[in-house]
Specification:
It is built from two helices and eight strands. With 135 residues, the chain is of the alpha+beta class. The radius of gyration is 16 Å and the shape is globular.
Length: 135
């Protein structure tokens, strides 16, 4: 069976570089499942949980910001953040979520770009908490 070379890179480090059987990524237009021989694709990433399966086991991590590129049996994820469940600081994620929720539910006085940045911060915090809780 064909495999996919999955590479996940942040500005700080190469997080993952191995072959896997399948990948699911959170894109701006929804979750995309990628199997061997997938059509070429380039998409921006949305904050959420990226998962991949290899030899009967699956792993998950939170990704936020960046892009995914799919070419001939290769998936390249260039992301601002990539964290596994055991790397997540739950208290920090809760504080970030609460802060973003408070700003977004109050009387907003900022620009639309600032509003979108806060919404992204909230989505990232929720994804981090969800993964840390094992969901």
């Amino acid at each position: 069976m064909a495999e996919i070379k999955l590479e996940i890179v942040t500005p700080e480090r190469k997080v993952f570089d191995e072959t896997v059987d399948s990948v699911t990524v959170p894109t701006a237009t929804g979750e995309v499942g990628i199997l061997p021989n997938h059509a070429p694709l380039i998409s921006s990433l949305k904050s959420g949980v990226l998962s991949f399966a290899s030899k009967g086991t699956s792993e998950k991590m939170v990704v936020s910001g960046g892009f995914v590129e799919v070419s001939t049996n290769k998936v390249s994820v260039l992301t601002d953040i990539a964290e596994k469940a055991d790397e997540i600081d739950v208290e920090s994620a809760k504080a970030e979520r609460d802060s973003a929720e408070k700003l977004l539910t109050g009387a907003w006085s900022g620009t639309e770009e600032e509003f979108e940045a806060e919404k992204e911060r909230l989505e990232r915090a929720q994804a981090r908490l969800s993964l840390a809780a094992g969901r």
